[in-house]
Write a structure and sequence with these properties.
This is ABC transporter ATPase. With 160 residues, the chain is an alpha+beta fold. Helix content is 32%, strand content 25%.
Length: 160
């Protein structure tokens, strides 16, 4: 069951998928429609999940579930991954590779492999103050507080 994102409690579980390229506005509109349709039917053991999403920077898909109503289970999580994989195929993007780093360079959102990001850190092209997207956050509260953070305050700090 789709609900507005702002209506979910801050303890809600989230999953963040980052694209290896920026989506066009048209693609993001299509993705938004597909996500809403998916969330309307998303269930765990036959019980509808109270779920929502956010789309950010034409690059990120954030899915959220209110686990106080019904927790996502293995099968329901598998269904969401299959849905994400269908988006990967349709739009020829990578949304599941966790070995990439997305960060801000001024107003631009950049995406690099982890190896390239390490090299940029070594070359001082990015610093501890560079804003990175910490996709390891697990709840809306963590997402609000710790998703866009200076690299020195995230797991990326090991590269400086």
């Amino acid at each position: 069951m789709f609900v507005p994102f702002e209506n979910l409690p801050t303890e809600s579980k989230i999953w963040i998928y980052q694209s290896n390229r920026k989506f066009s506005d048209e693609e993001f509109t299509e993705i938004e429609t597909a996500i809403q349709s998916f969330l309307e039917g998303w269930a765990a053991h036959g019980t509808s999940l109270e779920a929502s999403y956010q789309l950010k920077y034409n690059r990120f898909i954030i899915l959220a579930v209110n686990q106080e109503v019904q927790s996502a289970t293995g099968c329901s999580i598998d269904a969401s991954v299959q849905f994400i994989q269908s988006l990967e195929q349709k739009y020829d993007v990578d949304l599941l590779d966790k070995m990439n780093v997305t960060f801000k360079l001024g107003d631009h959102v950049a995406h690099k492999t982890l190896i390239d990001f390490k090299k940029m850190a070594k070359d001082k092209a990015v610093t501890e103050n560079t804003i990175v997207f910490n996709n390891l956050v697990n709840s809306i509260e963590e997402w609000n507080d710790n998703w866009e953070v200076p690299a020195g305050e995230s797991w990326h700090s090991r590269f400086f």
